[in-house]
Design brief:
- The protein is an alpha+beta fold.
- It is built from eight helices and nine strands.
- A five-stranded mixed sheet has the order 4-6-7-9-8, with helices on one face. A two-stranded antiparallel sheet has the order 1-2. The chain has a two-stranded antiparallel sheet with strand order 3-5.
- A hairpin with a 2-residue loop joins strand 8 and strand 9.
- Helix 4 runs antiparallel to helix 5.
- The chain is rod-shaped.
């Protein structure tokens, strides 16, 4: 791939110089330092521009391959400016000398003074020198920016892998803890919960890639809710609703589950079970996914622990994968904890 790009670049550069020569030597009616391409006797400009195009070529590429990378980029700017201008002057002198040789050949005697011709040649040659400087400097800048972007992307990927790796032991710890508390109290339920949990864990380990179909992710969420419903039983009043318009939409996996997991983990434990409520609504319409999750919590201390790996992880992952395409609002009011998330898929 790299070789193909290099060949294409060389071909484009050659095409530019060939078209440059043909345009000014034959197509556009031009008069240059006494040479022109409109004379009925001869096209003196075509001859003069033959060596002129080579001097332009030389000045352009000496900037690209030597002066800028070896002088300017290495902070040897004074040397760079002296060399650039000196080379331009020497090349212009040589080109002007050839011009006067060509004047004799074509018997052109109505030219301007030497200094006028030389000054105009220097001006044009400086233009190509500056063009070479601008070209390589712009290319270097683009390469530098591309390398920065690659580094940023690699950094993001590494952080996302780390954040996802955090979720697995966190989810595993909470799941094992739930099953542990059921053992001895309700062994049949503990067995059923463990089976459901193993299926969820399999999804986390093997099916949650970089992006996953929305239907699969929401099915994972639904299975988790059902598992928690089985475990909690009549201890809580649970309502949930999951709707989606486009099942083929893709989403970064495991973004919703920590919010829902947090609701079950911190739900209140009042004596009156009707006071322990969890409401979950997930809806996707027109590529926008919304999650509204509310749970009651015990307000004994007046504080509600909203920290921990789960929610912090979600916030960081959202900022990385949906930087300008999400809105997460977390609030609490009257012993109710509310999390609202909107993602533009």
């Amino acid at each position: 791939m790299s070789n193909i790009k290099s060949i294409k670049k060389i071909a484009l550069h050659l095409l530019f110089w060939i078209l440059n020569y043909l345009l000014f030597a034959f197509v556009v009616h031009s008069d240059w330092n006494g040479f022109n391409n409109v004379s009925e006797a001869h096209n003196s400009l075509a001859y003069a521009y033959t060596y002129g195009i080579f001097t332009n070529f030389f000045l352009f590429y000496i900037q690209v391959f030597w002066l800028v990378p070896k002088m300017y980029m290495l902070k040897r700017k004074a040397t760079y400016y002296v060399l650039s201008f000196s080379i331009c002057l020497v090349v212009s002198l040589i080109e002007t000398h050839f011009d006067y040789m060509l004047y004799d050949i074509f018997e052109i005697y109505d030219t301007d003074e030497f200094m006028d011709n030389f000054s105009l040649t220097v001006f044009v040659n400086l233009f190509y020198s500056v063009a070479g400087f601008y070209y390589i400097f712009r290319q270097a800048h683009k390469t530098s920016e591309k390398e920065k972007q690659l580094l940023i992307q690699e950094s993001f990927k590494a952080e996302l892998k780390y954040l996802k790796a955090q979720l697995n032991p966190h989810f595993l710890f909470n799941g094992i803890n739930n099953v542990y508390h059921l053992i001895g109290k309700n062994d049949a339920l503990a067995k059923d919960t463990l089976l459901q949990f193993s299926e969820l864990l399999r999804y986390q380990l093997y099916e949650s890639g970089t992006q996953i179909i929305l239907e699969k992710e929401l099915d994972f969420v639904l299975q988790y809710i059902k598992m928690e419903k089985t475990r909690k039983g009549s201890d809580i009043q649970l309502s949930y609703n999951i709707e989606f318009e486009n099942a083929t939409k893709k989403i970064v996996p495991l973004l919703l589950i920590p919010i829902i997991e947090n609701a079950f983990k911190h739900c209140s434990n009042h004596t009156n079970n009707n006071d322990n409520r969890i409401d979950i609504k997930i809806k996707e319409v027109g590529g926008k996914l919304s999650l509204h999750c509310t749970n009651t919590f015990d307000n004994v201390t007046g504080k509600y622990d909203v920290g921990g790996i789960g929610l912090i992880n979600v916030k960081r992952r959202l900022s990385l994968v949906y930087p300008d395409k999400h809105e997460l609002t977390i609030s609490k009011k009257n012993s109710r904890f509310m999390a609202d998330l909107i993602i533009d898929l």
